[in-house]
Amino acid sequence: MWWVGAGYKTRNVDPSALTPPSFLLLNSRPQLLLVISVTMAKDMTLLWASGSPPCWGVQIALEEKNLQGYNQKLLSVAKGEQKSKEVLEINPRGQFPAFKHKNTIVNESCAICFYLENQFKSQGTQLIPEGAAEVGLMYQLIFEAQPLAQKIGEVLYYNWKVPEGERHDSAVQRNKEALKEEMKIWEGHLQGCGDFLVGKSFSLADVIIFPVFAYFIRNGGSEERYPNVAAYYKKLRDRPSIKKTWPPTWIDGPGMGTLKDI
Amino acid sequence: MWWVGAGYKTRNVDPSALTPPSFLLLNSRPQLLLVISVTMAKDMTLLWASGSPPCWGVQIALEEKNLQGYNQKLLSVAKGEQKSKEVLEINPRGQFPAFKHKNTIVNESCAICFYLENQFKSQGTQLIPEGAAEVGLMYQLIFEAQPLAQKIGEVLYYNWKVPEGERHDSAVQRNKEALKEEMKIWEGHLQGCGDFLVGKSFSLADVIIFPVFAYFIRNGGSEERYPNVAAYYKKLRDRPSIKKTWPPTWIDGPGMGTLKDI
User: Fold this and answer.
1) Residues whose CB falls within 8 Å of the CB of residue B167, separated by 6 or more in sequence, listed in order
2) Best of B43, B104, B119, B170 to mutate (most A CBs within 10 Å, chain A)
3) Mind listing the domains of chain B with CATH numbers?
4) Which has the least CB within 10 A, A129, A230, A235, B7?
5) Does the interface ipTM go beyond 0.90?
């Protein structure tokens, strides 16, 4: 272990983290040397799909933990590549993301994010806060995000999930109402919060939930009816880890607008 | 902080943990003194319902962390008490469990379990394992348990969730098939595992997932078709933390058998 730091909070740096390219940033005061630890994560593999919030969360976590140069492959849900041999070898459920670190396979997006924080605690952004209230809120929001994502999916993919002969307008309407109620709860969570979902620093809650809100807005979710969600989205969308991993299929233009009446 | 231990792994014990009743166990070799730290958790409140896996998980976690004497109130879903004022004051979603520690409210069962481990790391059972492979698997299984619980719910509560005019036998059948597929995946996870879901020690994966399997079996899930699940269930059901918190409404007799053809 090397302890590196001068004038900044010291960080516990694994020597293997200092393989090139590590960045030596010299600021305007030459005596102030900051070493940012960047790991060339050649022992990691991520199979992912563009525009999938669960994949995006993992990519953001990797950036925040300064894990660069991992093996990655962009695959296509439209082509059904989540059921391809290379995905199934890692994730028998045939879902994105599929992730491997050395010999350890971890599936489920949130699980991968927690794993990365656990394994690289002292590298990059600290993604689990310190205070009891912040810790409790972070965990709560992450587990509340599961029904949020589910409710968005039930509106967006109703026709895909439900066979034609079983579809009912009343069910569609009920799903929409459930999503509206859910979004109101999140408006409440975001009321008076600063730049982040929890306390004064970026945490796993942001890693996991920002992509869900971005997906909501991308698919037509109203910025007017959910101003706190919209403000949060705008504050974070230019964060380097988020901007760098912005879904490539989203860059060309807007989404479908399916959620416009939510 | 006091460091207590002789002949056993030492534990970092908070003095407040030694308020009575702390247990001083003297084994057959009098020089070997083991102090088990028990906190009288009078600053915690749990509102819960009997037979709810999310509530049960929290109760198991509290036992494993040696948190005793917390304020608790058994309420009734049948009476709609999840929407009562006292629940809504803690959990605006009107769901069990509702949990508070000092001034910190934490809702969502898994979030509460993680919070307890985070806040009482050095007390009671260590619920997050050490090794990378074990950590990754634990997180994966916990997040995979969300769709498992959801699929059980979709079979058990179809008539409650879906209005009469929207019900279809084909949907019921599809939900059953989805649960069967899910259970097969868990049979695979449990193939060749020892007493616990992850590695050689009890972890948050057991805290959270044992109650889900118990619920499956309680409601008629087949021990013959899912022998690994049944074996796991039998190995853990007499563990003190589990036995002590066994749902009181389950003691009088078997459940409904709704899952018997899964």
Assistant:
1) B158, B159
2) B104
3) 1-127 (3.40.30.10), 132-250 (1.20.1050.10)
4) B7
5) no
